[in-house]
Write a structure and sequence with these properties.
Layout: H1 3-12, E1 14-18, H2 26-35, E2 40-44, H3 50-60, E3 65-69, H4 74-82, E4 88-89, H5 95-104, E5 108-109, H6 115-123, E6 128-131, H7 139-147, E7 154-157, H8 166-170, E8 178-180, H9 195-212
Parallel strand pairs: 1-2, 1-8, 2-3, 4-5, 6-7
């Protein structure tokens, strides 16, 4: 299930986790990320601007892989899809949300950090899930332990991923891609200048490609 999306995700390497209070920032942020070779964004549903931001990103760059994050309800799934979201990311495992995504045919990455959660995701046909918050739940050590019994399962860790540990994560075969915020923190473009975002995103992509060889 979702094998085509998983292949794309592996090629993307890094999915920036974006929080936007103003959808007017969405298009220029997308411009900066795309210029840096970071062709995706997970726009979190933590603000009222989320759906509008996804719509603006897709309008500015139809080839950008824009998805919705922090999705907690089936209503948010539908809102995100109406805005053009290509994938759904959830902080935890909610069977109702996951099943709804599967019914709608949209790739979903629920958060799973325990054997029970991974097993539940696998029962629904998912072989890739989010691992969040990665730092607090043991990072690569816990991921390796989970992948031992769940052969073939892979994770997208988010939460505590940084330029310092990016290489370690992406050097593991258990990791399909990582999610990160350090290149898209709102303070970086508070004045309307997105050049620092582009610079940090380009640095991250260079490090990610080097880690994957």
């Amino acid at each position: 299930m979702f094998e085509s999306f998983y292949q794309t995700l592996e090629e993307l390497l890094i999915v920036p986790v974006v929080v936007l209070d103003d959808e007017a920032d969405a298009a220029p942020l997308a411009d900066a990320l795309m210029a840096a070779g970071m062709r995706s964004a997970e726009v979190t549903f933590r603000t009222a601007a989320a759906a509008g931001s996804i719509r603006a990103m897709r309008a500015a760059h139809p080839d950008m892989h824009a998805g919705a994050g922090t999705v907690l309800t089936v209503e948010q799934v539908d809102e995100a899809l109406a805005a053009g979201a290509e994938f759904i990311v959830a902080p935890g495992f909610d069977a109702e949300v996951v099943s709804h995504c599967i019914e709608r045919g949209v790739p979903v990455l629920p958060g799973t950090v325990t054997p029970t959660e991974v097993g539940s995701a696998r029962k629904l046909g998912l072989t890739v899930t989010k691992f969040f918050p990665a730092a607090q739940y043991g990072g690569l050590g816990t991921i390796a332990a989970l992948c031992a019994p769940f052969v073939g399962h892979r994770f997208m860790p988010t939460g505590g991923v940084s330029k310092e540990n990016l290489g370690s994560y992406l050097g593991s075969p258990d990791i399909i891609a990582v999610g990160g915020t350090w290149m898209v923190k709102p303070a970086l473009f508070a004045g309307g200048d997105f050049s620092r975002v582009c610079e940090l995103a380009a640095e991250a992509m260079a490090a990610a490609r080097a880690a994957r060889g």
